Amino acid sequence: MKDTSQHPTLPPPDELWKAIQGQLQVKLTRSIYETWIKNTVGSKFDRQSLVVQVPTSFTAEWLGTRLRPLILQAIKTIAPSVIDVSFQVGQVRHISTITGPNKTGPMPLFRQHLPNPRYDFESFVVGESNRLAYSSARNVVTNKETTFNPLLICSGPGLGKTHLLQAIAKSCSDLKVDYLYVTAEQFTNEFISAIKTKTTSAFREKYRNVDVFLIDDIQFIAGKEKTREGFFHTFNELHTGDKKIVIASDTIPNRMHGIDDRLRSRFSWGLVANITPPDFDTRLAILKRRAKKQHWTIGSDALTVIADQVEGSIRDLEGALNRVISTSRALELPPDMKLVIESLESLMPKLSASVITKEAIFRCVCNSLNVAEKDILGGSRQREFVRARHLSMYLLKNDAGMPVTNIGRIMGDRNHSTVLHGIKNVSQGLTHDISLQNDLNQIRKNLTHV
Q1: What is the maximal distance between C-alpha atoms in the chain?
Q2: Greater pLDDT, 338 or 49
Q3: Nearest one of 412, 406, 381, 407 to 394, comparing CA atoms
Q4: In the predicted model, what is the mean pLDDT of residues 69-85?
Q5: DSSP β-ladder status, 84-89 and 179-183
Q6: What average pLDDT does the structure give for the chain?
Q7: How far apart are CA 164 and CA 275, in angstroms?
Q8: Are residues 388 and 369 in contact, defined by beta-carbon separation less than 8 angstroms?
Q9: Measured between alpha carbons, how far is 256 from 252 in angstroms, rounded to an integer?
């Protein structure tokens, strides 16, 4: 029941707290807001204090000691007559975003609001670099029993491990499976708080009574002895109870520095699925899906340039596409190949700053094979000209570090697949063609003297 009797000019406490949440959301990092603020509600007024209902005692303690000044500042801008805030543990009722029958009771504590709702299995682009991790993650939610436990997903930053963990969590929500998704930082903060406030029984109740437990960035617990001890016992309890455990890390178990041997061995009990940087086809598919979802009009050739030049993480890839679209809109120019190349050269100058130039490569290839540059750039299918052409493509890619799309432009506006075909022919020929090996060695020797 809404209590506004003592503050008739104020909005109801739940509405006031929603307004305060809006201010806090722009001032806090997403992880802090999602962990500590989002799953709370304004409960009532007590004299000149706003009472906020929170799910656990360690949430109340954390908010009261860490965020109180910021919360009071937000309250002052909205409702100056409210001069204090307190946090009360209780059953927090949420509006569920899960499709299906309406729920009447309070949402269990383990029903987490996902940090990023767009992270689901359908939006994950599958390629050779992540197929095992994707299939294993789906297996966690599609099969009641799995042949592996835990599932450890390893990758560098921005390659999709968090996406997969949150996709599992979203599927658990849809299937009404009890789950808990946390970051290792959240686990650490709540574990330490539980010790300080002597609420370890509530901590154990929260973390050990779920069917699927997902923890992100496990490397965060490295060097934290008490946290590692708490996680060790949590892991054992869940594993002994045949609960599914999914862990994300930035490295494989035997390279986890600052993690106990007993934990590293447990991480290896199940399946270790490594995600590597996406190949060209996967990068292009990611860009096409991103452009389609955002309703951006950009040609396939332009997307090909981005996919070819940005070989790092998915985050880098999408950032490059955002840069191109923003530049296009700011300059009121179409996002064609010319604009894309200029945008990416500005963003990553190293791509256009090769030590070995195309002029040097053409000159050395022509001198070594006794052909003219016009023969390399032309369309003749004579064997010696094709050989020189393919060697030029190979050197431009591997020695000058030039993107395939740029090579195609330099080599008489040839398309992406033609350049890849030429490079592949040389790569395969080098395994058995001694004459080709000698030609390449001679050209490279000449390049060192240019």
Answers
A1: 95
A2: 49
A3: 407
A4: 84
A5: unpaired
A6: 82
A7: 11
A8: yes
A9: 7
* Cα distance from N-terminal residue to C-terminal residue, the chain: 83
Q: What is the pLDDT of residues 241-255, one digit of tens each?
A: 999 999 999 888 888
Beta bridge partners of 54: 89
Amino acid at 113: H
The mean per-residue pLDDT over the stretch 176-198 comes to 89
**Residues 77, 234: Cα–Cα separation, whole Å:** 42
HSE value, Cβ hemisphere, 13 Å, CA-based, for 344? 29
CATH architecture, domain defined by 131-274: 3-Layer(aba) Sandwich (3.40)
pLDDT tens string 266-288:
999 999 999 988 888 888 899 99
H or E element at residue 271 = strand 271-274
Say which CATH superfamily domain 13-89 falls into. Answer: DnaA, N-terminal domain (3.30.300.180)
Count of Cβ atoms closer than 10 Å to residue 189 Cβ:
19
The per-residue pLDDT for 26 is 67
Let me know: does 342 contact 351? Beta carbons within 8 Å: no
Q: Residue written as tokens 């009990």?
A: 269
User: For residue 285, how many C-alpha atoms fall within 13 Å in the half-sphere facing its CB?
Assistant: 11
| Lowest mean pLDDT across 12-16, 151-155, 340-344 | 340-344
pLDDT score, position 351: 43
Q: CATH number of the domain at 358-447, out of 3.40.50.2300, 1.10.1750.10, 3.40.50.720, 3.40.630.30?
A: 1.10.1750.10
pLDDT the model gives residue 97: 30
Per-residue pLDDT at 231: 93
Give the mean pLDDT of 373-401. Answer: 90
Long-range contacts of 65-73 (CB under 8 A, 24+ apart): 66/36, 67/24, 67/28, 67/36, 67/37, 70/24, 70/27, 70/28, 71/20, 71/24
Is the distance from CB of 303 to CB of 416 less than 8 angstroms? Answer: no
Length of the chain: 450
C-alpha dist (Å) from residue 156 to 179, 244, 249, 345: 25, 24, 8, 24
